[in-house]
Q: What sequence folds into this?
C-alpha cells in the first residue's frame, strides 16, 4: 500500500481533509492557580473541527492534549521551546495546527493499519524524534501541605490548629470538617501522625484538585430553538430543587432566570467572561431543556447554583464536598455533578453518603476519557453515573467503566445572549439526566426511590452497549 505523505508548512498550510474517525473529545489544559481561567482545547474529530481558547500554555502541554484527543503519535524536535497563545472556533485541523504551532513546521503521516503520526519541527521532519506522550485528563492532583480533618461531635478546631501550627482554610461546621494548611510537607506529615492519635479526630484525608470543565463552543447555525419553559408557582411543600454544583451560573435570559434561586459560592467571587456562557450556565440550560421535554413546557422545578470554582482554574475535593453539603442544606432534592477526576476522596465520599441517607438523588458525569477506570464522584455507589450515548452506543470519547450504569445524549445546544452554543461530553449527559429526574419528580410528586427507578428504566445501559 502506497504511503500517503502529507506535510504542512506555516506559509502553505491548507485545512486538513483527512478523515479522523468519529471521536469528539473535549479536553482542558491545566493552568496555574493564578490564571484567570483554564485554557481549553476542544478537538471534535467527528466534525473535523477544532476550537481553542489558550492564553498561555507550553507547547508540550498542547501537544499532549492533541495526542490524547486524536489518538495520533506526536513527535517533537528536541530543544524547541514555545509558549502557545491562540483563540479560534470551529477550524479544520490543519488550520488549527497552523495557529497553535505558529512558525513551526509540521507534517502528518497517516499509515494504513497504524496510528497517524504528527511531526512538529523547526528544521526537518527527521529531527522530530521526541515522543510526546498523550496526557490522561483528570489525573489525580494532590494539593501539597493540606489536610481535611473531620472532628467528633463537640470537638473544636481552632485550638487544635494552633497546636499543630496550621491555618484553617475552610470550614464545614455542620459536618464538623475543616481544611488545614501547613507551612511545609514535614509539618503536614507530623500533624497527620498527631491527628491520627487524637481521640477527637474522626477522619483525616488529603485534598485534591479537580480541573474546571471545558467551555461550550459557539455554533454558526442550528435548528434547535431556545428553551421555552414556564415556571409554575413552586409549592410550599415538596419543592423540587436541583443543586447545580459547578462553575457560577450567569443570567439565562429568555424568561428562564425565574428558575434560578439565589446562588451560593464556596470558593469566592467568580470572574466569568461576559461574552460567552460558563460551564455552569450551559449545564443549567441543559437541565431546563430536559425539564421542558418531560413536562411539556411548564414546571415548578428550580435550580440552586452552587459555585465551587470561584475565580480559580480548579476546584478541590473539599470545595466540592462543601458545595454538595450547601446544596442539601438549602433544600436540594437532586444534585448534579458535571465534574470529576480520578481522585478518590474518602471525605468527599462520606459527604455524599450523608446526602444519600437523606434521600437526595445524586447524578454525576462519568468522564470524557474512553477508558474503564473510575471517575469520581460519579463512581461512588450513591451517585448515578451517566456516560454519553450516540445512536444507541457509548460515544467514542466517553468513559464506559463498570461503575457506569446510565447513558444519555452527550450533545446539548444552549443559548447565551441570543447566540447558540454546543456542549459535548458526559457533563451534558449528566445534566440531561438530571433534568429528566427533576421533571419526573415534579410531575409525579414521587420521591427519590421511584425517581431513580424511572431513570434506570429509561436510561439504563443495555449489556450490548458496554465495553
A:
Amino acid at each position: 500500500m502506497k504511503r500517503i505523505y502529507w506535510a504542512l508548512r506555516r506559509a502553505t498550510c491548507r485545512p486538513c481533509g483527512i478523515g479522523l474517525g468519529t471521536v469528539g473529545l473535549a479536553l482542558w489544559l491545566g493552568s496555574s492557580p493564578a490564571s484567570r481561567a483554564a485554557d481549553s482545547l476542544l478537538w471534535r474529530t467527528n466534525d473535523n473541527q477544532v476550537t481553542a481558547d489558550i492564553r498561555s500554555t507550553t507547547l508540550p502541554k498542547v501537544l499532549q492534549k492533541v495526542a490524547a484527543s486524536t489518538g495520533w503519535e506526536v513527535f517533537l524536535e528536541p530543544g524547541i521551546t514555545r509558549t502557545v497563545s491562540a483563540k479560534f472556533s470551529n477550524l479544520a485541523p490543519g488550520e488549527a495546527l497552523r495557529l497553535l504551532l505558529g512558525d513551526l513546521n509540521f507534517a502528518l503521516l497517516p499509515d494504513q493499519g497504524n496510528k497517524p503520526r504528527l511531526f512538529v519541527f523547526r528544521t526537518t521532519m527527521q529531527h522530530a524524534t521526541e515522543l510526546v506522550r498523550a496526557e490522561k485528563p483528570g489525573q489525580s492532583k494532590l494539593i501539597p501541605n493540606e489536610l481535611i480533618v473531620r472532628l467528633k461531635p463537640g470537638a473544636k478546631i481552632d485550638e487544635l490548629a494552633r497546636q499543630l501550627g496550621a491555618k484553617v482554610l475552610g470550614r464545614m461546621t455542620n459536618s464538623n470538617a475543616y481544611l488545614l494548611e501547613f507551612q511545609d510537607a514535614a509539618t503536614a506529615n507530623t500533624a497527620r501522625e498527631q491527628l491520627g492519635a487524637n481521640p477527637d479526630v474522626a477522619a483525616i484525608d488529603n485534598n485534591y484538585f479537580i480541573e474546571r470543565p471545558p467551555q461550550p463552543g459557539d455554533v454558526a447555525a442550528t435548528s434547535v430553538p431556545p428553551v421555552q419553559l414556564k415556571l409554575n408557582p413552586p409549592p410550599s411543600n415538596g419543592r423540587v430543587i436541583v443543586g447545580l454544583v459547578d462553575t457560577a451560573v450567569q443570567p439565562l435570559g429568555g424568561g428562564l432566570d425565574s428558575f434560578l434561586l439565589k446562588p451560593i459560592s464556596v470558593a469566592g467571587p467568580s470572574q466569568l467572561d461576559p461574552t460567552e456562557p460558563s460551564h455552569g450556565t450551559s449545564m443549567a440550560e441543559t437541565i431546563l431543556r430536559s425539564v421542558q421535554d418531560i413536562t411539556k413546557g411548564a414546571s415548578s422545578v428550580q435550580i440552586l447554583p452552587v459555585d465551587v470554582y470561584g475565580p480559580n482554574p480548579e476546584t478541590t475535593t473539599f470545595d466540592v464536598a462543601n458545595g454538595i453539603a450547601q446544596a442539601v442544606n438549602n433544600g436540594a432534592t437532586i444534585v448534579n455533578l458535571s465534574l470529576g477526576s480520578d481522585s478518590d476522596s474518602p471525605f468527599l465520599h462520606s459527604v455524599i453518603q450523608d446526602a444519600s441517607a437523606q434521600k437526595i438523588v445524586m447524578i454525576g458525569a462519568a468522564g470524557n476519557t474512553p477508558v474503564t477506570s473510575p471517575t469520581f464522584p460519579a463512581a461512588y455507589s450513591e451517585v448515578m453515573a451517566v456516560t454519553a450515548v450516540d445512536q444507541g452506543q457509548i460515544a467514542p470519547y466517553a468513559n464506559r467503566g463498570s461503575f457506569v450504569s446510565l447513558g444519555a445524549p452527550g450533545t446539548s445546544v444552549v443559548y447565551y445572549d441570543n447566540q447558540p452554543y454546543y456542549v459535548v461530553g458526559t457533563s451534558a449527559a449528566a445534566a440531561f439526566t438530571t433534568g429528566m429526574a427533576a421533571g419526573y419528580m415534579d410531575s409525579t410528586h414521587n420521591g427519590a426511590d421511584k425517581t431513580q427507578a424511572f431513570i434506570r428504566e429509561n436510561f439504563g445501559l443495555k449489556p450490548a452497549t458496554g465495553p
The chain has three domains: 6-132, 142-207, 217-465. Residues 6-132 form a domain with the Phage tail protein beta-alpha-beta fold fold (CATH 3.55.50.30). Confidence is low (pLDDT under 50) at residues 1-38.
